[in-house]
Amino acid sequence: MNRLKDRVAIITGGANGIGLATAELFLKEAAKVVIVDLDKEALEKANTQLDHENLAYCVADVAKTKDTYTYIDFTLKKFGKINIFFANAGIEGTSKPIADYPENIFDQVIAVNLKGVWNGCKYVIPKMEEGGSVMITSSVAGLKGFAGLGAYVASKHAVIGLMRVAALENAGRKVRVNTINPGPVNNDMMRRIEKDMSPENPDEVMKGFESSVPFGRYAESSEIADMALFLASDDSKYVTGCMHVVDGGMLTA
């Protein structure tokens, strides 16, 4: 229960889904946690739900440099240091072929999913303590294509490249950098993807995704959080520059 004792973690996209589940687990493991999100109401709800003295929240847009400084400065003033950074914020965009994909939505996906991670690597990592851990949420969509999800797939491939470079550049300070690559997760993002792909029959989209997973089901956010805990803890002290797939066997099917 004390695997993260005396460590301070920043979790972007922390108000819901994987981010919220990870915050809850990190708190149980004795970390101090700052959750970051653009949605103030969702952050306030998460703060009330978790109700922990070692939890704080900060409203910020990860795609903006000034907001990145805001959540870094907030964390340092609140808890004095940064040991763990989980670059988890992400959006799915829409489901359309590349030829029909709206440019403004493409730009939004790249801004949050890629620029947000870039900002974290550029501005957060230099402020981290030596021996820290960085986790970046990629996806199985960072390792294969999915028709209709071009912007999302492109962004999730791109952050794997960033991870590899950041792992090399920060190895001298023993800062580990890895991606987590979930398959479909039972959360609000997948509900939106299912409805976007088939407004009239989202349940059939879910069944289609489930049939592509050998385990026959979506992951729970808590199961992705378990991988984040491994990467944040000393259990992974010699692990960097790697992709960690949590997909129930989806990529082997």
TrEMBL record:
GO molecular function terms listed in the Swiss-Prot or TrEMBL record: oxidoreductase activity
A Pfam family: adh_short_C2
SUPFAM superfamilies reported for this sequence: NAD(P)-binding Rossmann-fold domains
Superkingdom, natural source: Bacteria
Keywords annotated in UniProt: Oxidoreductase
Membrane found in the keyword field: no
Keyword Oxidoreductase carried by entry: yes
Similarity comment: Belongs to the short-chain dehydrogenases/reductases (SDR) family.
Name the record gives this protein: SDR family oxidoreductase
Taxonomic source organism: Flagellimonas ochracea
